[in-house]
Amino acid sequence: MINLLFVCSGNSCRSQMGEGLARQIADGRFQVKSAGVTPIGVHPAAIASMREIGIDISDQTSDLLTGELLEWTDFVITLCNQARDHCPAIPPGVRHIHWDIPNPDQLYLSPEDRNRQFAAVRDLIKERIETLFKEIK
Questions:
Q1: Helices 14-26 and 44-51 meet at what angle, rounded to 10?
Q2: Which of the four pLDDT bands, split at 50, 70 and 90, describes residue 45?
Q3: Which is the catalytic residue, given 35, 80, 83, 125?
Q4: Over the stretch 62-98, which tens digit does the pLDDT of each residue have?
Q5: Is the pTM of this model over 0.90?
Q6: What is the pLDDT of residues 91-129, one digit of tens each?
């Protein structure tokens, strides 16, 4: 089985959405985890955004990126420049993929704007995962 690890700065939004999306899309073909260089908890707006498409990530945890996780994985996917730049050394044989995905946790003029941004980031991550899965089939 192939192991995937999604990493962003806080393991709050992007990597959490990546983990939930990859689990659903993989349909048991891959093991999936996520972590952050400075984990801060799963963002409620990320949970809500994923619920909109029928994926529940409310039980996922915000975890620290460790050498053990990097040893466990076959693919590490960093989702922001901070995660890429602060990632510990990636072990030989582990494939590193970098996607610079915007952080949806920003200040917005309205709750609707915030929801749209979270949905846009979610949909971008989903598209990238689907492409990745076709490549590593």
A1: 30
A2: very high
A3: 80
A4: 999 999 999 999 999 999 999 999 999 999 999 999 9
A5: yes
A6: 999 999 999 999 998 877 788 999 999 999 999 999 999
The residue annotated as part of the active site, out of 4, 8, 42, 129, is: 8
CA dihedral in degrees (111, 114, 119, 124; nearest 10)?
Answer: 170
Residue 75 β-bridge partners: 4, 95
Active site residue 87: yes
Of 25, 48, 87, 94, the catalytic one is 87
C-alpha distances in Å from residue 135, one per residue of 115, 127, 129, 132: 30, 13, 10, 5
Active-site residue, 13 included = no
Which residues pair with residue 2 across a beta bridge? Answer: 30
Kindly give, in sequence order, each residue whose CB lies less than 8 Å from that of residue 23, ignoring residues fewer than 6 positions away: 32, 55
